[in-house]
Amino acid sequence: MNMIRRPSRWLLILAVLAMAATACQPGEEPGAEDTPTDATTAPDDTGTPTDPGDAQEGGTVIFGLEQEPAILNNMLTAGNLFATAKVVTPVLYPLWRIRPDFSYEPLLLDGEPETRGGDGDEPFTVVYKLKDEAVWSDGTPISSEDVVFTLEVCLDEEVDITSRAGCDEVESTNIIDEKTVEFVFRRPYAPWRTIFSTLDGSILPAHALEGEDFNTVWNEEIVNPKTGEPIASGPFIFDSWEKGQQITLVRNENFWGQMAHLDTVVFRPIEDVNTLIQAFRGGEVDAMDPQPQIDLIEQIEEVEGAEYQVSTGPQWEHLDFNHEVPPLDQQFVRQAIGMGIDRATLAGQLIAPMDPAVETLNNVIYVTNQAEYQDNWSDVIAYDPEGAIALLEENGCTRGEGDIFECGGNRLEFGFVTTAGNELRELTFEVMQQQLQEIGVQLNADFGEPAVVFGERLPGQDYDMFLFAWVGSPDPAGGD
Questions:
Q1: Which terminus in the chain has less CB density within 10 A, N or C?
Q2: Res. 451: pLDDT tops 90
Q3: Helix axis angle, 331-340 to 385-394, nearest 10°
Q4: Distance of alpha carbon 37 from its chain centroid, rounded?
């Protein structure tokens, strides 16, 4: 959901990021860079609305973030939060931007790359042509060497890269000229567009980063470590980071594309959703894209001059089971829990007030607003509490203390991890807790700060059950 305050002296023209209302369970983690459903009216991250009549020059926008980035390197595991991408993407461009219709729009690329081979003796090859005018903020051309360097960093086993998917399919590269480079793949690779197009796909400046420790160089600032000066390929450039307070970007005066209209964008972290909403209502922040909350629309409609937009994006909320935790390692236990959760009621009570068209998700490859979507699971985890109890009993489980089932000596009592301060997720927990109590399963709240639950507990597999969001992909390979 995008919330925009529009004071008379300027218009918010920062990129907006659509929140998904399509959910496995309700609530969303702030998502990948995405724009409203109608791409013809969507602003881009230059701070430029597609309707020039809306533009006003200058000014500062204060954008409320629900999470503060841990670091500013969005290619590293520690920096792979949506909040990091929101800050970094206007500074460091990927090759592509994904549009609301799930198409790929070239950013640094000069049109659609050429592809050849893959169906005979010639290997599958992609030829990337960069825009001639594209330069780094210090005037250095954005070049083929930068693309190859980025690939090499992606493949470097000494670097804590979030994902090497796609990079590891490239067998060799061939620099044709300063702006043209070939990638030769090991095999025909259908999702080749996904390389350097997502949250962690920014192209890196080789002349600035060669020889540097990529694990640490951009932890706290996006600068050329050889000169100490900020560096950017996008319409904004890093200015400062006051930890716990704000991150400031300023207009890149040497941007090669259409200049940003804003002078400054300030990202202010306010991790409690209700506090963030009150900050917006009080004029302390000018824009936000909070996760959906029960009475959010009603609160925003009371704010004079505020505008809001609800649109369906690629994110989907889901409940993860840790298969290493007995008895969650048993499929019948997981299925019984699924059958004991009334997802349709959850969506209807918690999301439908904002988007009446919300649907439960029964597919993890495609989301409901993609043409390829099909229902795979309705008959597997349909809400059926009596069936869930029968399934547990059929597998030898018996009622124990507090009427909670025990299976093979293991009590069906689990910690439930999610982000503290997110009212909608906390409400989701309460509803699930009540529903599962009725089938003999006990859930206990185990909430934490986003930096902890995502930065430590999730990668460390330190949870029983975890409610959070995944981001879908235009390409089904994302489901891998």
A1: C
A2: no
A3: 160
A4: 17
pTM of the predicted structure, to 2 decimals: 0.75
In this prediction, residue 307 carries a pLDDT of: 87
The CA distance from 120 to 326, in Å, is: 49
DSSP letters for 110-122? SSSPEEE-SSSSS
**Which of 245, 260, 193, 229 lies closest to 47 in space, CA to CA?**
260
- Tell me the CA distances in angstroms from 268 to 63, 72, 285, 345, one per residue in order: 6, 14, 8, 34
- pLDDT (average), residues 101-109: 90
Q: What is the DSSP code (8-state) at residue 140?
A: P
What is the H or E stretch that residue 145 is in?
Answer: helix 144-155
Q: Please count the other Cβ atoms lying within 10 Å of the Cβ belonging to residue 225.
A: 16
Q: What is the Cα gyration radius of the chain?
A: 23
Instruction: Report the amino acid identity of residue 50.
Output: T
* Short-list 246, 319, 273, 282, CA closest to 421: 273
- Using an 8 Å Cβ cutoff, are 112 and 197 in contact? no
C-beta separation of 265 from 63 below 8 A: yes
Cα 154 to Cα 261: distance, rounded to the nearest angstrom: 33
Burial class of residue 373 (count of CB atoms within 10 Å of its CB; 0-12, 13-18, 19+): middle
The letter for the amino acid at 115 is T
Spatial CA neighbour of 389 closest among 324, 430, 435 = 435
Interval 363-401: pLDDT, tens: 888 888 888 899 998 888 999 999 999 999 999 999 999
Contact between 287 and 3 (Cβ < 8 Å): yes
Task: State how far the alpha carbon of 173 is from the alpha carbons of 95, 176, 180, 185, 249, in Å.
Answer: 16, 10, 11, 9, 34
The structure tokens listed for 266 are 């300030």
pLDDT at 310: 80
Residue 7 pLDDT > 70? no
CB 429 within 8 A of CB 413: no
Judge if the upstream peptide bond of residue 327 is cis by omega within 30 degrees of 0.
yes
421 Ramachandran zone, left/alpha/beta (phi>0; psi -120 to 50): left
pLDDT (0 to 100) of residue 297: 83
Amino acid at 1: M
Our measurement of the distance from residue 128's CA atom to the centroid of its chain's CA atoms, rounded to an integer in Å, reads 26
Q: For the chain, what is the largest distance between any 2 Cα atoms, rounded to a whole number of angstroms?
A: 72
Q: Which residue in this structure is represented by tokens 């973030």? A: 65
- Contacts of 407 by beta carbon, 8 Å cutoff, 6+ apart: 327, 330, 333, 392, 395, 396, 397
- Which residues fall within 8 angstroms of residue 201, CB to CB, at 6 or more apart? 75, 94, 95, 96, 195
User: Is the confidence at residue 8, as pLDDT, over 70?
Assistant: no
Cross-strand partners of 33: none
